[in-house]
Structure formats: structure tokens, C-alpha cells
Amino acid sequence: MIIKALYTIALLLLQCCLVMAIIAQxxxxxxxxxxxxxxxxxxxxxxxxxxxxxxxxxxxxxxxxDTKDLAHTCxxxxxxxxxxxxxxxxxxxxxxxxxxxxLQELIERDDAGIELLAIYKTIxxxxxxxTIIMLQHIPMQYN
Length: 143
Known about the structure:
Number of strands: 0
Structural class: mainly alpha
Number of domains: 1
Shape: globular
Mean pLDDT: 80
Order of helices and strands: HHHHHHHH
């Protein structure tokens, strides 16, 4: 009975992640990946490594993105749901950061925490869990 309940919860969380991936492409200023899940070309990718590679933001775009747009982009990263594939969220988030240059850039920005908190205030309950997980990896700056 407990396993069935945990399985149901895991499926619900996965659905939340998928909804966020769809929302990602609707955010103004967010990076719009030229290749992403759901496209026919995506099915041609054979490995997870190939998926990670095609989802990297070109550096010339990444360094010009303001932190708000970068935060939206990271929250809507198509493989963000990979964090649930590990035994704990900390390790899953560490793996997501190591595999995505957008997250690597975001955690280095001084105003990342401020922008994520601002986003947190505007989103629904389902999306808040992802924001909370990301905030745990951002050093907070208090002005």
C-alpha cells in the first residue's frame, strides 16, 4: 500500500515537472531551445549525454541574459525533472547543475536568490517546489 502511494506521488511530481517544461517555452525573455522534448529530432538522440549537450545555452547568449530571464530559463529547463531520478534531491540537483550551463551560471550570480524569490511569489503551488529546491543552492545576498 505504501509503495503504491509513493508511486502515485512520484507520478504527480513528474507531471508537475512536465507542466513546467511546457510553461518554459511561454516565458518572455527565457531561452527557447531550438531542440527540446516533443520535437521529432529529439527522438533521434540516443543518449542522455546527447540530450544534455543539445540543451546547453550558447555562451554568447548565456552571458547576455539578465538574471530574471536566466532564472525562468533554469526553472523551465527541459531535463530539470531528472533531479527526481536519484536517491535524494540534493544529489539530483547537484547532477542537474553539473550538466547544465544555465544552472552553473545562475548560482554564480549575486542576484539569483532575489530573482528566484520574486518568481516564487508569482507562481502556483505546483511550481513552487522547484523554486525551493533551486533556492537551496543559491547563496543569498542581503542588501
